[in-house]
Design goal:
The chain is an alpha/beta fold and 384 residues long. The protein has 12 helices and 18 strands. The two termini are 20 Å apart. It binds flavin-adenine dinucleotide.
């Protein structure tokens, strides 16, 4: 049976970032994922510069490798049917990536041993070790398997029936030359449309030769109908050409401040969507996934071979220090009566100052929050 220091289940941005930091410190890390990579992930695929900084990613080299890295220098924002704000920035504030490319790139770059196409059939404790499928042993286990993470399932914290999820659908596909010409969305300026009931928002987003259209809601009822109405609205206003071959695919996840899943236990940590860490107002989950992966790695290194829950407790403290109180944070959608918000929302989204400073800079770009510092490279070390 193979052995490693740290076993990470899930090779998305959370798992690969955690692995990357641990490998830089010299630990032996195995990442297992049930899919083979490159694999696709249902997502709009925008990331912020803080993500690139935390991972030391050189986007010029990334693009030079033929991978999509669409600079974003502005947004159009409105509530469906109301006046829009058009906000421009002098430099890129975000980038559009394709998850099939980005996730594969991060995973290969992590330097971890990869077990891909590897279904988790069993996970159990044997003495002070975890054993996966009777073929790999590890001292500490990281659950990075997304919303339905098998580690969260094994811990008994995955309660899909009662968790307050966001449900979202997207379609991503290449545009033909004629469709590109007929599409009114500028590649550097994605468009965001808050739903009239303020339970979610839709987006149209061009990245290179591709377009990504989607809608997410904090309400799972009739999502497909909401998506169909949104596409119809975009076609009627001439934003996208009619009859695009969009096949929508859906996924669910939890938002920070609403998720109840524990972050750590005895020799085990949950990161990214497995822990329910996506930002509450935008649903952005890549940055919290990556940052939680790095914070978990830092905690594992400091635990220095002793992985009892006391030694891993600093991970939760780090997450709270970074993202705020885990439950009961102020949510403007809940603090103010929805009827009052609905009366003023149309005007607010159409107000360029509010759109820029509140919706974009604070809610979507988290411009006030600097990147996590890059991990130092340490000498080769193996935990005691
Ligand atoms: C429609 C939609 C649009 C979104 N748009 C954005 C966006 O534009 N920007 C943004 O920041 N966030 C966005 N998000 C959220 C973002 O996609 C997630 O928060 C992010 O992918 C979380 O990363 P992760 O590594 O935790 O999980 P994932 O990316 O889900 O990776 C989990 C990995 O675990 C693997 N896995 C699952 N089960 C098993 C198993 N049993 N055994 C082994 N491996 C397993 C999976 O194959 C997968 O590779 C969007 C989400 C949706 C649904």
């Amino acid at each position: 049976m193979a052995a490693c220091d740290v076993l990470i289940v899930g090779g998305g941005p959370a798992g690969s970032s955690c692995a990357w930091w641990l490998r830089r410190a010299g630990l032996d890390v195995v990442v297992c994922d049930r899919r083979t990579f490159p694999r696709d992930k249902i997502c709009a695929g925008w990331i912020t510069p803080q993500v690139l900084a935390a991972l030391g990613l050189d986007l010029t080299a990334y693009a030079a490798a033929g991978l999509t890295a669409q600079a974003i220098r502005g947004f159009r924002i409105s509530r469906v049917g109301d006046a829009e704000s058009h906000v421009r920035y002098p430099t890129p504030v975000s980038y559009g990536i394709r998850r099939c490319e980005f996730d594969d790139y991060l995973l290969r770059r992590s330097g971890a041993r990869l077990q891909l196409g590897h279904q988790v059939d069993s996970l159990r404790r044997e003495g002070s070790e975890w054993v996966l499928n009777a073929d790999i042993r590890a001292r500490v286990l990281v659950g990075a398997g997304g919303h339905f993470c098998p580690v969260a399932q094994m811990l008994g914290v995955l309660r899909t029936a009662s968790e307050p999820i966001v449900a979202a659908q997207e379609a991503e596909f290449p545009l033909s030359r004629e469709q590109e010409q007929a599409c009114r969305v500028e590649p550097e300026v994605p468009e965001l449309f808050f739903t009239r009931d303020l339970k979610g928002y839709g987006w149209v987003f061009r990245k290179g030769a591709y377009i990504n259209i989607g809608l997410g809601r904090q309400d799972t009822h009739q999502l497909s109908d909401h998506v169909a109405q949104f596409v119809n609205f975009l076609e009627r206003r001439g934003t996208i050409p009619a009859g695009l071959p969009a096949k929508f695919r859906g996924h669910a996840y939890l938002l920070y401040g609403e998720a109840q899943r524990p972050l750590y236990g005895d020799a085990v940590l949950l990161i990214g969507d497995a822990a329910g860490l996506a930002y509450g107002r935008s649903g952005e989950g890549i940055r919290p996934a990556i940052e939680s992966g790095l914070l978990a790695a830092q905690t594992i290194l400091e635990a220095n071979g002793r992985y009892g829950s006391d030694a891993l407790a600093p991970y939760e403290q780090r997450v709270v220090a970074r993202f705020g109180p885990r439950r009961g944070g102020v949510n403007v959608w809940r603090v103010f009566p929805r009827a009052l918000l609905q009366t003023v929302a149309g005007k607010l989204f159409g107000n360029a100052r509010f759109a820029r400073h509140v919706v974009l800079d604070r809610w979507f770009l988290h411009a006030h929050q600097p990147p996590l510092p890059m991990p130092p490279r340490r000498a080769q070390r193996i935990p005691a």
